[in-house]
Amino acid sequence: MLYEYSLSAQKEHFFNITAQVRDAVSKSGVSSGIAVVFCPHTTAGITINENADPDVIPDLLLGLREAFPDRKQFRHSEGNSHAHLKASCMGSSETVIIEGGRLLLGTWQGIYFCEFDPPRNRKFYVKVMGE
Ligand code: ZN
Fold this sequence. Notes:
Blueprint: E1 2-9, E2 13-16, H1 18-28, E3 32-38, E4 44-50, H2 56-67, H3 81-90, E5 93-99, E6 102-103, E7 109-115, E8 120-130
Antiparallel strand pairs: 1-8, 2-7, 3-5, 3-8, 4-7, 5-6
Bound molecules: zinc ion (ZN).
Zinc ion (ZN) binds next to loops.
Protein backbone atom coordinates (compact mmCIF):
# COMPACT_ATOMS: atom_id res chain seq x y z
CA MET A 1 0.00 0.00 0.00
CA LEU A 2 1.21 3.49 -0.89
CA TYR A 3 0.38 6.59 1.14
CA GLU A 4 1.18 10.19 0.27
CA TYR A 5 1.54 13.05 2.75
CA SER A 6 2.23 16.73 2.25
CA LEU A 7 3.72 19.50 4.35
CA SER A 8 4.39 23.19 4.04
CA ALA A 9 8.02 23.96 4.85
CA GLN A 10 8.50 27.63 5.67
CA LYS A 11 12.02 27.34 7.08
CA GLU A 12 15.03 25.05 7.11
CA HIS A 13 13.87 22.45 9.57
CA PHE A 14 13.57 18.76 10.43
CA PHE A 15 9.84 17.91 10.52
CA ASN A 16 9.00 14.95 12.73
CA ILE A 17 6.87 12.69 10.48
CA THR A 18 6.85 9.62 12.75
CA ALA A 19 3.10 10.02 13.37
CA GLN A 20 2.33 10.01 9.63
CA VAL A 21 4.43 6.87 9.11
CA ARG A 22 2.64 5.18 12.02
CA ASP A 23 -0.66 6.30 10.44
CA ALA A 24 0.31 4.63 7.14
CA VAL A 25 1.25 1.39 8.92
CA SER A 26 -2.03 1.44 10.84
CA LYS A 27 -4.11 2.06 7.70
CA SER A 28 -2.29 -0.71 5.83
CA GLY A 29 -3.15 -3.36 8.39
CA VAL A 30 0.33 -4.86 7.92
CA SER A 31 1.56 -6.48 11.14
CA SER A 32 4.95 -7.78 9.92
CA GLY A 33 6.92 -6.20 7.10
CA ILE A 34 8.65 -2.96 6.20
CA ALA A 35 7.78 0.68 5.64
CA VAL A 36 9.80 2.71 3.15
CA VAL A 37 9.63 6.48 3.61
CA PHE A 38 10.66 8.30 0.43
CA CYS A 39 11.22 11.97 -0.38
CA PRO A 40 10.79 12.87 -4.10
CA HIS A 41 12.73 16.16 -3.86
CA THR A 42 16.37 17.07 -4.50
CA THR A 43 16.81 19.68 -1.74
CA ALA A 44 15.07 17.78 1.05
CA GLY A 45 15.70 14.41 2.63
CA ILE A 46 14.60 11.77 5.11
CA THR A 47 16.52 10.71 8.19
CA ILE A 48 16.08 8.98 11.55
CA ASN A 49 17.44 10.71 14.61
CA GLU A 50 16.75 11.71 18.21
CA ASN A 51 13.20 12.64 19.17
CA ALA A 52 13.72 13.23 22.91
CA ASP A 53 15.97 16.26 23.36
CA PRO A 54 14.61 19.12 21.18
CA ASP A 55 18.10 20.65 21.08
CA VAL A 56 19.44 17.85 18.86
CA ILE A 57 17.68 19.04 15.69
CA PRO A 58 18.96 22.65 15.89
CA ASP A 59 22.42 21.20 16.55
CA LEU A 60 22.16 18.99 13.45
CA LEU A 61 21.10 21.99 11.36
CA LEU A 62 23.98 24.05 12.76
CA GLY A 63 26.46 21.29 11.95
CA LEU A 64 25.08 20.85 8.43
CA ARG A 65 25.27 24.60 7.75
CA GLU A 66 28.89 24.60 8.88
CA ALA A 67 29.73 21.45 6.89
CA PHE A 68 27.99 22.68 3.73
CA PRO A 69 28.18 26.48 3.54
CA ASP A 70 27.05 28.39 0.47
CA ARG A 71 30.17 28.90 -1.67
CA LYS A 72 30.78 31.39 -4.45
CA GLN A 73 32.55 28.66 -6.45
CA PHE A 74 29.29 26.71 -6.83
CA ARG A 75 28.16 26.62 -10.47
CA HIS A 76 24.49 25.53 -10.16
CA SER A 77 22.43 28.49 -11.43
CA GLU A 78 19.57 27.97 -8.98
CA GLY A 79 21.95 29.04 -6.20
CA ASN A 80 21.02 26.28 -3.78
CA SER A 81 23.89 23.81 -4.10
CA HIS A 82 24.34 23.85 -0.31
CA ALA A 83 20.78 22.48 -0.04
CA HIS A 84 21.51 19.76 -2.61
CA LEU A 85 24.60 18.76 -0.60
CA LYS A 86 22.66 18.55 2.67
CA ALA A 87 19.89 16.55 0.97
CA SER A 88 22.36 14.01 -0.40
CA CYS A 89 24.00 13.77 3.02
CA MET A 90 20.65 12.83 4.63
CA GLY A 91 19.50 10.63 1.74
CA SER A 92 16.09 10.31 0.10
CA SER A 93 14.61 7.45 2.11
CA GLU A 94 14.57 5.36 5.25
CA THR A 95 13.34 1.80 5.71
CA VAL A 96 11.82 0.77 9.05
CA ILE A 97 10.91 -2.75 10.16
CA ILE A 98 7.29 -3.37 11.20
CA GLU A 99 6.63 -6.09 13.78
CA GLY A 100 3.43 -6.62 15.76
CA GLY A 101 1.87 -3.79 13.75
CA ARG A 102 4.43 -1.35 15.18
CA LEU A 103 7.50 0.40 13.84
CA LEU A 104 10.66 -1.06 15.38
CA LEU A 105 12.13 2.33 16.17
CA GLY A 106 14.39 2.77 19.18
CA THR A 107 13.03 4.62 22.19
CA TRP A 108 14.84 7.82 21.23
CA GLN A 109 14.34 7.61 17.47
CA GLY A 110 12.01 9.64 15.30
CA ILE A 111 11.63 9.87 11.51
CA TYR A 112 12.28 13.29 10.03
CA PHE A 113 11.58 15.09 6.77
CA CYS A 114 14.56 17.45 6.32
CA GLU A 115 13.87 20.72 4.53
CA PHE A 116 16.92 22.54 3.19
CA ASP A 117 15.52 24.99 0.63
CA PRO A 118 12.44 26.72 2.05
CA PRO A 119 9.82 27.91 1.51
CA ARG A 120 8.40 24.92 -0.35
CA ASN A 121 5.31 22.78 -0.44
CA ARG A 122 6.59 19.23 -0.10
CA LYS A 123 5.33 15.69 -0.16
CA PHE A 124 6.64 12.32 0.85
CA TYR A 125 5.54 8.74 0.32
CA VAL A 126 5.21 5.81 2.68
CA LYS A 127 5.17 2.38 1.05
CA VAL A 128 4.07 -0.39 3.42
CA MET A 129 4.78 -4.00 2.51
CA GLY A 130 3.84 -7.10 4.45
CA GLU A 131 5.69 -10.41 4.53
ZN1 ZN B 1 18.90 23.46 -7.28
